[in-house]
Amino acid sequence: QVQLVESGGGLVQTGGSLRLSCAASGRILSSYTMGWFRQAPGKEREFVAAISRNGSIRFYADSVKGRFTMSRDNAKNTVYLQMNSLKPEDTAVYFCSAKFGGLSAVGNYYEHTSYDYWGQGTQVTVSS
Question: Is residue 27 over pLDDT 80?
Answer without folding.
Answer: no
